[in-house]
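seq:
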Amino acid sequence: MPRLHAHPESHLVSRIGWLRAAVLGANDGIVSTASLIVGVAAAGSGRPEVMIAGMAGLVAGAMSMAAGEYVSVSSQSDTEQADLARERAELATQPEAEREELAHIYIDRGVSPELAYQVADQLMSKDALGAHARDELGISEVTTARPIQAALTSAATFAVGAALPLLMVLLLPTAILVVGVSMASLLFLALLGAVGARAGGANLARATLRVTFWGALAMALTAGIGALFGVVA
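struct:
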């Protein structure tokens, strides 16, 4: 026991809820706002028009991210709660069947039948619903859905990500906005990929390449569309 206390563990999976929302929000903020700025600038618009379009994209995107995350994660939470309510009812009406079910989960994982039934009995005597939620449904405190956390995290990180290409519009000469914002945004995306990989313990090069590739593709497409319509106009 003293050795266990001397070796505390901090698992990265505990970050999965807010980290997913944060990376998604920041990535969308950079990509969508930079793409919008590049498209409008490529159409021949001046700095004021580009700034207005970028600010509108920031506000609309942040609100959209918050609403989308809240709705989607709330749906996940509703499903979890429905499953827990069903499990609670089954524990109340057919506890022996639930004991059998839990024991067979452990048997399927390689535990001997005798020990599996002992484990099931001990866990159910302490917290039957918690044992079934964790081992039968895969619901735990770490992975449970948190709609408000996801919504606020995504909205905040989207706004931060979107502010970066907007800052470039203020700092760069109008003549090089398309190239300058594109290059700066790719650097921001590479940094985001590296930070996200570091926080999640993922492969640094793969994460960085992934976000920069899709960001570059999005900006190239919108620049092409902006240039096409700018010429037509």
